Amino acid sequence: MLKLDCGLCGNPSCRTMARKIATGDTKPEQCFNLSTRPEYRQNLQKIRQLLREGVEIGAKGTIVIEDTGITYIHPCISETGKVTAEARLTTSPEGTVDLKYGFYDPIQLCMMLSMTGFFKDIRCSPNLGVGRVTVDDKTVLIYKDGRINVRRAKDKEDAIQTIRLVSRSLWGAIICSYCGNAGVDCASGGCKNCITHVCPVISGGPPDPTATSRGSIQQTTASTIFDRVKTLETKRYFEEGVKQLDDAFDVFEKASLKVLEERGFDSSALKAIEDKIAKVNKLAIKFIVETPGAYDAAIGLILSGVAIDLTRVADGLKIVASSKKALSPKLKELFSEAVTIATEAYYAFRAVDFEKAKRTAERYTAFRKRWTEAFRKMSEKDVLTGIEKIAVNGFYMSRLLTKPLPT
Ligand code: SF4
Fold first, then answer.
1. To bridge 395 with a disulfide, which of 179, 218, 244, 364 should be the other Cys (CB 3.0-4.6 Å)?
2. Minimum CA distance residue for ligand 1 atom 7
3. Ligand 1, residues 33, 179, 188, 384: which to mutate, most atoms within 8 A of Cβ?
4. pLDDT band at 254; cut points 50, 70, 90
5. Residues 198-213: what's their mean pLDDT?
6. Domain tally, the chain
7. What rounded mean pLDDT belongs to the chain?
8. Closest ligand 1 atom to Cα of 17
9. Which atom of ligand 1 is nearest to the CA of 3?
10. Residues 91, 22: one domain?
11. Residue 163: inside a domain
């Protein structure tokens, strides 16, 4: 796919769209860019050809794992006294997993392995869908189908703890079998289904191979996370993460204003945003790993989700700022509106201001009509795609407050 993640097809990322195309749930022509821009005609043809030849994704049916997700534990062949263990993760405590789209999003899997700070000697191939890391003296292999293999663990308990660490760290990379999004995209507000229902990836908490059923869940919304976190020992990770997000947003606003006022674009601003987002992601994963309650851990996933929104908002700014020509008044007007939508949405989320969030979502709907008209008439498709990327990710944030979460 195009890796633009512009959101125009209704999916927060091109990867989600690619999964839906591969499984026949949608058609490549539903990608706004593929279907309307001549420069992507070859990409469209290539995708059609791949579909004719057949593409492999996920697997048919549902796997049911009896009693425990630990598939085996046996003595290490290479080191006496140590054990090797393998677990098959599932997305529900009942031990079932629907592999329609696969288990882990391979790109998200590799990104998350590198951002946690828990692992050493990280090697990961999105193409093969396999990651390999070192945890203390143990080698851990992670497969895109949800298998985690631990070698040279001290004993069974050590192996289980390592599997739990990896499983929690990679929670956001699990693909929702309902909508095809990685969990972190659902946590960004980018999934329409998960705004009205508890996301299936989030509902069971991070997969734990030895957990028994957690029974029925109570439901709350993401608007409660700022209060809920106050009682948790791990609140410092969350609070520092939010501070980094605030700082990153501040940099985004200032850099956008410079572009609007034609005072140039400071590329160091993007680097500053990237660095802050990297810190947010690391803190969010630390929060998920160390927060004892499985449902409270979802607060960390929301933190990661907002970080993804902001990453894409900053990407949009980069596209707009890379324009070789000065922005026309019409483009300036749309760009300014997109920045306002993103900014208002973020502050509505931070202030838990439902009214403001609702107004921002309405503002996006009106913006989208004007934008679509402009996209039809104007030749600056790249710039317009960047502008939409800013606005749509703001829109995602505007609907986060009402997003259902387990408690
Ligand atoms: S419309 Fe945008 S997000 Fe959707 S597949 Fe096309 S380029 Fe990717």
1. 364
2. 4
3. 33
4. very high
5. 78
6. 3
7. 89
8. 5
9. 8
10. no
11. yes
